[in-house]
Amino acid sequence: MKEFDVIIIGAGPAGIVTAVTVKKQYPSKTVLILKEEEKGLIPCGIPYVFHDLDSVDKDSMGVKSFIDLGGEAVTEKVVEIDKEKKLVITVSGSEFSYKKLILATGSVPFVPKFLPGYNLKNVFYIKKSYNYINNLFGELKDKKNIVIIGGGFIGAEVAEQLAKFNDKSVSIVEKEDLCFSKAFSSELSKIATEKLKKANVTIHTSTSVQEIIGENGNVVSVKLNTGKELRADAVILAIGYLPNTTLAEKTGLGLNEYKAIIVDNFGHTSAKHIFAVGDCSETLDFLTGRKDRIMLASTATSEARILGYNLYGIRIRNNFTGTIAVFSTEINGLAMASAGVNDNDIPLINLEIISAKYTGVDRHPGTLPGTSPLTVKLYVSPSDGSILGGEVWGGKSAGEIINTIALAIQEKLSVYTVLSYQIGTHPLLTSAPTMPGFIKAAEIALSKINNTKTNHNT
Amino acid sequence: MKEFDVIIIGAGPAGIVTAVTVKKQYPSKTVLILKEEEKGLIPCGIPYVFHDLDSVDKDSMGVKSFIDLGGEAVTEKVVEIDKEKKLVITVSGSEFSYKKLILATGSVPFVPKFLPGYNLKNVFYIKKSYNYINNLFGELKDKKNIVIIGGGFIGAEVAEQLAKFNDKSVSIVEKEDLCFSKAFSSELSKIATEKLKKANVTIHTSTSVQEIIGENGNVVSVKLNTGKELRADAVILAIGYLPNTTLAEKTGLGLNEYKAIIVDNFGHTSAKHIFAVGDCSETLDFLTGRKDRIMLASTATSEARILGYNLYGIRIRNNFTGTIAVFSTEINGLAMASAGVNDNDIPLINLEIISAKYTGVDRHPGTLPGTSPLTVKLYVSPSDGSILGGEVWGGKSAGEIINTIALAIQEKLSVYTVLSYQIGTHPLLTSAPTMPGFIKAAEIALSKINNTKTNHNT
Questions:
Q1: In the predicted model, is pLDDT for residue B26 greater than 80?
Q2: Is A178 within 8 Å of A317 (Cβ atoms)?
Q3: By the CB < 8 Å criterion, does B299 face chain A?
Q4: Is residue A381 located within the same domain as residue A282?
């Protein structure tokens, strides 16, 4: 039986970043990754496999960086954890002993067993599995009518990619009145949904699926609650993910009401010497402290760094508890991003926020070739001006500007601070120094706050 | 004589942002801008007038946003300020009385009167003047051999643009051993200089100009200290700017050793009711507190917001004193940016810094079309891990990533904080969640710090 100081189960972003971080920080420790498949996939790249990459291998992600540091990797599914003996047992019966065990088992697509037809042939899910996606990649090649159930990020991005093929007819069925509404404000969800329509995706919102209808075990159509029936050669279910915690549950680790492994700020589970990180572990909303169901690779890797650094002693503090949930995407050439709260969150916690929006351009002068519009919207507490959320959309730089806003949220900065924020600007790279979106939106927010107070001008 | 609550002299970025901010924050105040030319120019856009915009008017910037708020503007040069009577007198003899006066008179190109030939015909400067640049735009059209003296941002950007014309031969004479060395580290200055060479600019570094030689009053060549003579149909001198403070000096305002108007954190000059902002006012280095000579539109507009908000009472505090000096540019398709200190600053203050560099890509997977390399380099204090400077180069998103780093510098964040920083990532917009440049560079910095200390691993 091989013995290791640290065993990590799972080789997704959380597993790999934890493994690399531990091995770098504590090079004398022996570290093993146990993974289920030979090749891994970059999860957020999966939608782009179907068109822009036109290849599954181009989206693959391996453990080479970890092996190069002296780590070991074995491809075998773990079926049991013996907490007392501190060992894990694989499907082939191999045993590996650990001193510290880290679960980075990720998440699995939600399978609606209550939905008739959910298991017909040509009904697919977006599993974060190389083998599964490789098969799906082949299967979808000759499918003409594709119905995607669920208009969140994964469903929408896969739809946008498949709709780039002229010979495919792609539709989305979404039970909410807009796509992306779990992450984006109503305003941005509407913009995103319209953009998706312009990308030749037919969208049925405020609509649910009653049945996936098959003939001879093969899907032929999707029956909606409106009575309509959509012809379907393939169906993709993209209605969310669940923490992959069957093994954790079997091991007796504490799970929360969403079946996520309960962890503290440093990834400790209810069992001594066992840690969890990423999608399989509990996530809290940064504002409310309530459990939420955000599963993002970027959040997972942040947790992984904190766990990796601190595995043998607290080296970096996790002063900021909870996830800000920074999302970004690009649909049909429009980049869109969000961080923290937006107006959809108001009813959840009786939130007092004001929103402030500024639309400019991402280059200056705006007459330069390649200039795109750029909008920054902030969600700010009217009592102290603190920035609780933001959205950015327009040109590609939205994907980085949202990260500046995320840092401001994380550091509890207010619009007062942002107003004296020093930035760099350049014609070919950014907005003009006279109208940077983040700062202009902060100005508007402060004006709104002041308008609700007595005016003390002299 | 017209009376105003606030008079602002100058309509560059500092003047306009101050004017708009004052008028928005204190709408009942009467505000006048006095400017010298009918049309203004976006200063950082000037190099792009010559090729990418191929138009001066496309780079113009007016006072419309200020007029729309109820502000007034008059185009007349101010020749005198009467501090006692609180009025300004223009070249035509018109008088305008003020309660508060703001000088936003900007900067003017340094004219080396000691250099023989500095005033020959076809020797030009990059004045931030619509009329001057409009004339230069026409003059350069038929010039074949153009010699640019000075390889800082302005000289290099103008050279890059002019070299895009196949019929022009463009060279730079730079007295330092690399271009851009005032703003960039030696590593990045070298990369930038090489990139400029590949853009068909001939560069003479470690070289100075002995004489600009003319025939019949017209420039014909530039004589270098190496003995070499460069044929020249036009010469552009781009060797820096001086604060435009002739009027301030005449008015008896306190000036520092660089002839910049001395101001406090809120823009107050030595004279009651007179304020100064932007290039004409004093700038301090954020780290040393020493006077420096940074002149950036982005710094100027930050000062302008602080002045505008606080003109009738301190509404936003300027907790961060000094300029971080956030620069960005793009040369021949390579975006480059810097903020704060770099290794060139070490001798200035016996600075203890470690540098940490990470090179990745700006999309993920890196196999996506349009992916560019992206490097982040941080300069960090080894004693407390605080981030004192950064550089980013590669794809266009460098221009926004440097602003996140600038915010980290301004908020005095350390690499410890950055390691738990939550970001958003997306294949088409950013690096992978497993390897975001800013965070990876922070990791490397921390490893370097730890390597210099006793290892406490257990």
A1: yes
A2: no
A3: yes
A4: no
ipTM for the predicted complex: 0.94
Residue B453, pLDDT score: 65
Q: Let me know whether A71 and A186 are in one domain.
A: no
Q: Cα(B344)–Cα(B342) distance, rounded to whole angstroms?
A: 5
What's the pLDDT tens digit per position in A264-312?
999 999 999 999 999 999 999 999 999 989 999 999 999 999 999 999 9
Position A453 pLDDT exceeds 80: no
- B-chain CB neighbours of A368 within 8 Å are 45, 48, 52-53, 58
Q: Looking at the predicted structure, is the pLDDT value of residue B457 above 80?
A: no
Q: Is B312 on the interface with A (CB under 8 A)?
A: yes
CB contact under 8 A, B404 and A400: yes
Name which of B106, B67, B25, B64 is nearest B301 in CA terms: B106
Range of the domain at B434: 335-451
Residue B458 has pLDDT above 80, yes or no: no
Closest-CA distance of chain A to residue B32, Å: 18
Q: Are residues A158 and A221 in the same domain?
A: yes
Model confidence over B183-198: pLDDT tens digits? 999 999 999 999 999 9
Number of domains in chain A: 3
- B182 pLDDT band, cuts 50/70/90, is very high
Which residue among A239, A261, A283 closes a domain? A239
The DSSP code sequence of A25-70 is: HSTTS-EEEEESSSSEE-GGGHHHHTTTS--SGGGEE-SHHHHHTT
A64: contact with B, CB 8 A cutoff: no
Is residue A88 within 8 A of residue B400, CB to CB? The reply is: no
Residue B261 · residue B276 · CB < 8 Å: yes
Which residue type occupies B288? T
Q: Give yes or no for residue B413 having a pLDDT over 60.
A: yes
B positions 369-428 inside 8 Å of A (CB): 369, 396-404, 406-408, 410-411, 413, 416-417, 419-428
Pairing of strands A40-41, A60-61: antiparallel
How far, in Å, CA of B254 to CA of B270, rounded?
A: 6
Q: How much is the average pLDDT of B403-421?
A: 96
Answer yes or no: is pLDDT of B455 > 90: no
Q: What is the CATH number of the domain that holds A186?
A: 3.50.50.60
Q: Chain A, 92-121: which have a CB under 8 Å from a chain B CB?
A: none
Please list, in sequence order, all residues whose beta carbon lies within 8 angstroms of the beta carbon of residue A89, skipping any fewer than 6 positions away: A78, A79, A80, A81, A82, A95
